Structures are given as C-alpha cells and as structure tokens.
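User: Show me a protein chain along with its predicted structure.
Assistant: Here is one chain, sequence first, then structure tokens.
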Amino acid sequence: MSLLDIDVDLELVPGDQPGTVRRPDLIIVDRADRKWARAERRVLRASEVLLVVETVSPGSRRMDYRIKRDEYADAGIRHYWILDLDEPVSSLAFRLTDEFGYVANGEAAGKFSTSEPVALDVDLTALLD
C-alpha cells in the first residue's frame, strides 16, 4: 500500500524519549501494518516501512541527499528513493546493506525500472506533464 501525508517514527531513540518523526513524500508499507497502526492510533514505525520516496525541491536538496538518507539508513528502512524533478527528471534508488549502509541500487533518467521492493516501471518524463 502506498501512502501520502503519513508520519513515520524513525525509532532512533528509546520509546520513552521524544522521537524523530519524518513525513516522507511517499511511503510503501504492508497493508496489515498500516491497518494496525491506524487501529492503535499511532504513527507508523520505521520497521514497518518498505520504501521511502522523497522528491527534491530547491530548498531540500541537502536534506534529501544527505540528512534524510542518513536518518532513514539509521532507522533501518530497507529502500530509499530520491526523485529529482530538475531537467532531466531522474531517480536515485538506494538499498540498505548491513555492512555499508545505503548503497546505490540504480540511477535513471527518462525511465526507471526496478523489481525491489516492488516491481515498477515509471516514465519519469511524464511526471512533469
């Protein structure tokens, strides 16, 4: 299930302390986890998130490419994609490894295809239409 406007607790501190919460541009989670979080009236936990997608805006470049990437990796989110709408529209996909943190799992301009964490083919140029 893909979601917009949902907060994610990055679980970077013990549960009895104020946490770090982000609101990614898009997240992919298992439907059962989303239903469970909604039933408990709580934000989603990073451990429940399969994929985070951030869209770069002029003021967010450093935040998306550095800070959020580090935070999401520290939180254990397995896949992180950055979508850059500057011409040419491009995407950069990262996957989390135990040894190296996030490693690039594909960069694309024009068309983006992947099989993990979900099979997807996107015509990136159509995003500007």
